[in-house]
């Protein structure tokens, strides 16, 4: 190795270390508070799910009725966990790829606290009965300007970093990140202005609301997660992305198709005829951008299955990419106007699809990114591979069950609803066993994320292992439950994970 | 990213005099995870696989089929049913809205009018009044003769009120109320806030009040207590409803 190469690698490592150091406070704040909201959201999810099979559970307390806990559950999941995980990942990946240290960590951290206060006030508002009743926008109307302003205060700096990046081509992850950073304020502002500030016809308001939900999934959570997956896979495996043209196909088809999706939830409602059909077709076509990304990432990673299996970041990311695959297939099969659409319109299936998108796809990729980012910004290794494994297995079995049960159970519920000459109760009874299963599996997911949250808190407190050996998910050596207790001076050949 | 020249990211403290071995050791020990990372390699240029194209083609066909099923793209009326009447299940009888007792039906509608017209702005949602307006609870003019109350609602009031206290001018707040709305809001204030006259002002009586109001010399100008006492201190003509009469909750007319 010539002196010049050593020098370049060293400069590179020092630059990376400097970037990580400059971002450690905001990134860790977003990830830890996001994980805390995830736990809160799952607890609310368990309560609301329990209400569906045991209505007498806590029935004396209006604060915990189904209508409030279900709304609070989803809003805490989206704005508390989803967005904060996304913020942490966006600012970190954008800094890394634009090769800029963060110069506004203090402002981002402050805005992060404001965002958290907004979410907290919103969730308490919902629980106290002041929710707006618009799905995914249940926060009382004071919350949205707060969230939007703090969003800009958090994200603007990543835009600036991208603008002043060194010459060179723009990496795939940056396309997705930049797109998501621009799409979200467009979607959020449009929906909130049209619903809160200039309210129009209530039927159309319903349509706008449906479009907002769909756009949040397809135009924010999806590109952020794809960006992380496109970053982590080549980073951990050390291999180039399989096909650049496939990545371009995936990105542009996402950008062109997905803004049309959403209004299929109003099929049959008195809105202009083309809207629900266009929405159904666009949601079905989500398969194209999804499969392009899935195939590309899986082909890149599958060259070395051992790394996928051993590295916590890659294992979670690949699970999330499989989640995207399932979601793409579900998008096709749940939105056929002639047959399935009417069965999924008013049943649990819609919820199943949302959970599939937010947890099975987005959250898993975020977990993967977190397992990658945290050791770098804290300069400590994950404490215990057992905790990581528990998180992985309870989450994966839990989410597969929740999603499948909700989608299939919702289907059954929809068939029951179609028999309109029978009492409504019989449709509800059809969903009964599935709802039971959902409550139990949410408990498993809660269990797994409690451990994740604790692990993350310990890392935040600086209790991680000081070692040059990464925490890998290898179980072959039985000598220590905590992996290799590496001595920092004993630097051997270490592969990158 | 790797296409950057090595010089472009050079930091000021990394000049030629730096001890490379020492610096490398420091990075490797302090941030081992960062130091051992791979760089992102150049993108691969494999062709798009046949299977991806075929799968996407099938889904495109399905999506096209969905769009092909749309018969009239911009027909905004296709799903609107003008003059829609709720369907009746086979074997059942169309009963329409469920009839309610008159006092409850009038009070429910009256409460909406009370808020919508703006009475609650000054007299308060609980009718207790405040600095700007007297209390309606226990007021002699509210629970007394109905024509006097209706004239105040329709035309407003200035000068002293029933207790003799002067609150300034009340405008013709209720000038545009329809007879059923006037009847409802009168019934509501006469039986809400702790008042209980237990009578229901009928639509017929409210119509009479509107007629009497229109006959004034200057309809819509605020009344004084002198004019009220001289000309309107009487019950409205017409028959009051029995509180237990069954009425249509929307139209407020008695049902057989």
Please name the fourth-level CATH homologous superfamily of chain A: Cytochrome c oxidase-like, subunit I domain
State the fourth-level CATH superfamily of one domain in chain B: Cytochrome c-like domain
What's the multimeric state? heterodimer
Largest sheet of chain B: 2 strands, antiparallel
CATH uppermost class of chain A: Mainly Alpha
Q: How large is the share of residues in beta strands of chain B?
A: under 5%
Q: Quick one: how many beta strands of chain B?
A: 2
> Mind telling me the C-alpha Rg of chain B?
38 Å
* Sheet with the most strands, sense and barrel status of chain A: none
Which range best describes the helical content of chain A: under 10%, 10-25%, 25-40%, 40-55%, 55-70% or over 70%?
A: over 70%
Low-confidence stretches of chain A: 480-496
Mean pLDDT of chain A: 88
Name the CATH architecture of one domain in chain B: Orthogonal Bundle
Mean pLDDT of chain B: 80
Q: Report the β-strand fraction of chain A as a percent range.
A: under 5%
How many structural domains of chain A?
Answer: 1
The secondary-structure element order of chain A is HHHHHHHHHHHHHHHH
Query: What general outline of chain B do the C-alpha atoms trace?
Result: elongated
Specify the number of helices of chain B: 10
Please compute the radius of gyration of chain A using only Cα atoms.
23 Å
Spatial strand sequence of the major β-sheet of chain B: 1-2
């Amino acid at each position: 190795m010539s002196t010049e190469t050593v020098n370049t690698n060293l400069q590179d490592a020092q630059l990376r270390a400097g970037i990580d150091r400059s971002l450690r406070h905001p990134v860790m704040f977003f990830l830890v508070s996001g994980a805390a909201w995830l736990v809160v959201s799952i607890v609310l999810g368990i309560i609301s799910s329990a209400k569906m099979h045991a209505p007498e559970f806590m029935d004396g307390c209006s604060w915990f009725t189904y209508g409030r806990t279900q709304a609070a559950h989803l809003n805490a999941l989206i704005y508390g966990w989803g967005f904060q995980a996304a913020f942490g990942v966006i600012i970190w990946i954008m800094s890394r790829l634009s090769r800029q240290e963060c110069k506004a960590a203090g402002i981002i951290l402050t805005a992060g606290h404001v965002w958290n206060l907004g979410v907290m006030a919103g969730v308490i508002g919902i629980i106290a009965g002041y929710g707006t009743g618009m799905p995914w926008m249940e926060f009382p109307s004071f919350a949205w300007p707060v969230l939007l302003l703090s969003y800009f205060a958090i994200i603007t700096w990543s835009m600036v970093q991208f603008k002043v990046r060194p010459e060179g081509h723009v990496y795939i992850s940056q396309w997705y990140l930049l797109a998501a950073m621009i799409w979200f304020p467009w979607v959020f502002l449009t929906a909130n202005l049209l619903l809160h500030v200039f309210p129009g016809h209530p039927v159309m308001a319903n349509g706008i609301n449906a479009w907002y939900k769909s756009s949040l999934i397809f135009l924010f959570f999806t590109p952020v997660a794809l960006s992380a997956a496109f970053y982590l896979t080549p980073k951990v495996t050390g291999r180039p992305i399989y096909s650049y043209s496939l990545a371009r196909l995936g990105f542009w088809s996402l950008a062109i198709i997905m803004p049309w999706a959403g209004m299929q939830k109003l099929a049959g409602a008195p809105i202009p005829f083309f809207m629900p059909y266009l929405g159904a077709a666009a949601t079905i076509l989500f398969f194209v951008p999804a499969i392009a990304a899935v195939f590309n990432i899986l082909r890149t990673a599958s060259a070395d299955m051992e790394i996928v299996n051993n590295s916590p970041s890659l294992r979670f990311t690949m699970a999330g990419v499989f989640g995207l695959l399932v979601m793409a297939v579900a998008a096709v099969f749940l939105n056929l106007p002639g047959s399935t659409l009417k069965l999924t319109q008013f049943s649990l299936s819609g919820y199943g699809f949302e959970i599939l998108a937010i947890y099975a796809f987005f959250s898993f990729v975020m977990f993967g990114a977190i397992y990658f980012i945290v050791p770098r910004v804290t300069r400590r290794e994950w404490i215990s591979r057992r905790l990581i494994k528990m998180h992985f297995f309870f989450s994966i079995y839990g989410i597969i069950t929740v999603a499948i049960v909700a989608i299939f159970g919702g289907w059954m519920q929809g068939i029951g609803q179609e028999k309109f000459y029978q009492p409504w109760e019989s449709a509800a009874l059809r969903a009964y066993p599935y709802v039971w299963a959902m409550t139990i599996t949410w408990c498993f997911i809660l269990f797994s994320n409690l451990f994740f949250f604790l692990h993350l808190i310990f890392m935040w407190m600086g209790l991680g292992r000081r070692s040059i050996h990464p925490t890998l998910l290898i179980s072959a050596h039985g000598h220590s439950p905590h992996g290799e207790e590496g001595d920092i001076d004993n630097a051997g050949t270490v592969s990158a994970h | 990213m790797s296409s950057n020249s090595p010089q472009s990211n050079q930091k000021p403290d990394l000049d030629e005099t730096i001890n490379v071995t020492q610096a490398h050791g420091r990075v490797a020990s302090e941030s081992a995870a960062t130091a051992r990372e791979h760089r992102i390699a150049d993108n691969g240029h494999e062709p798009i696989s046949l299977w991806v194209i075929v799968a996407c083609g099938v889904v495109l066909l399905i999506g096209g089929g969905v769009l092909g099923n749309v018969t009239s793209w911009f027909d905004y009326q296709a799903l609107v049913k003008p003059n829609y009447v709720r369907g009746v299940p086979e074997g059942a009888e169309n009963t329409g809205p469920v009839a309610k007792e008159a006092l409850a039906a009038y009070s429910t509608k009256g409460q909406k009018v009370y808020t919508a017209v703006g009475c609650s702005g000054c007299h308060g949602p609980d009718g207790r009044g405040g600095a700007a307006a007297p209390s309606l609870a226990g007021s002699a003019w509210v629970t007394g003769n109905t024509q006097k109350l209706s004239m105040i609602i329709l035309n407003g009031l200035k000068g002293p009120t029933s207790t003799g206290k002067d609150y300034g001018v009340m405008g013709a707040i209720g000038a545009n109320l329809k007879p059923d709305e006037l009847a409802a809001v009168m019934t509501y204030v006469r039986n809400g806030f702790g008042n209980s006259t237990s009578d229901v002002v009928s639509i017929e009586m409210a119509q009479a009040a509107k007629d009497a109001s229109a006959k004034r010399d200057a309809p819509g100008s605020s009344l004084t207590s002198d004019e009220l006492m001289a000309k309107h201190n009487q019950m409205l003509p017409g028959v009051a409803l029995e509180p237990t009469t069954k009425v249509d909750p929307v139209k407020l007319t008695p049902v057989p």
